[in-house]
Predict the 3D structure of the following.
Amino acid sequence: MNQVPTIKLNNGTLMPRIGFGVWQVPDSEAERAVGTALEAGYRSVDTAAVYGNERGTGRALAASGVPREDLFVTTKLWNGPKQRWGRDEVLRAFDESLGKLGLDRVDLYLIHWPRPMREDFLAIWQTFEEIAASGRAGAVGVSNFRPADLERLAGESGLVPAVNQIELHPLFPQEELRALHAERGIATEAWSPLGQGKELLTLPAVAAVAAKHGRSAAQVVLRWHLQLGNVVIPKSVTPERIRENLDVFGFELDAGDLAALDALGASAAGRRIGPDPAVFDV
C-alpha cells in the first residue's frame, strides 16, 4: 500500500497530497468507487453537496474499516443562487452534509464558488469562522477563488483560508494564483488535475515524458503537480486507474521534464476547461 505524504495546512492540520475526487460519480456508484480507492491506499476523499453523492461516500467510509483519524474528508457548501446564504442557511447546509456523510465532523469545508456578483461570500466566511472554531471542521477554505476574491477576504477577516481548490493542470497552470497562495500560506489544490478527456494526456510532450520514465501520461502529469507543491484529487471509477493514479511516488521528473510540461501552459494561452469564477452563478 502506498504511503501518501502530507502537507501541513496553515492551522497545523495535515492533509494528504493526493485525494480521491468524486465529481460526476453518481451516488449509486460512489460507495464502490470510494471503497476501491480506500482499499488502494487513498485516505483523502473530496466530495461536495452539489455532487449528490455524500451519502454513497459516507457509506464507503463507514464500511471501509479505516479508523476515522486516518481519513481526511472534504465537502463543500453549494452556495447556489436561488436562496439567501445567511448564518442559519450555511449552518443548516453544513449539518445536512455531515448527516449524509454519517460524520460528526469533516476535515475540510470549502465555499464552492465565490460568486462575486452576489456580494455574499464575506458573510458566508464569517459563518465558516464559526464552524472552524467549533471544531466540526478541522480546517476551512475556499474553491475557485480568484486573487481579487482572496484580497477581499483578507481585508475583512483574520482567518486565512487553509486551501483554495482551483482548476489547475499543465494547460492552465495558474501561476499568479499559486504565487499568491504561497505568499499567504494557502495550500493549492487542483481539481481536474489531468485536464478534461484525453486531450492533455495524448499530447506528444506528455507522451515523451511518460515513455522516458516508463509511466502513464496521467502519472507524469500528477507527478508534475506534486513537484510544484500542489495537492491533487484525480477522479476515476476504473479500479486500475484509481490504483495507478496513486502510484506516483517511485519516480521524479527532472528539470527538462518539468520544463516540457510547463511549456504546455504557454502554448495553450491559459485555456480553462471549467467555468470562469468571475461570472459563474448557476
About this structure: The two ends are 40 Å apart (CA to CA). The longest helix spans residues 87-101. The chain has a mean pLDDT of 96. The longest strand covers residues 72-77.
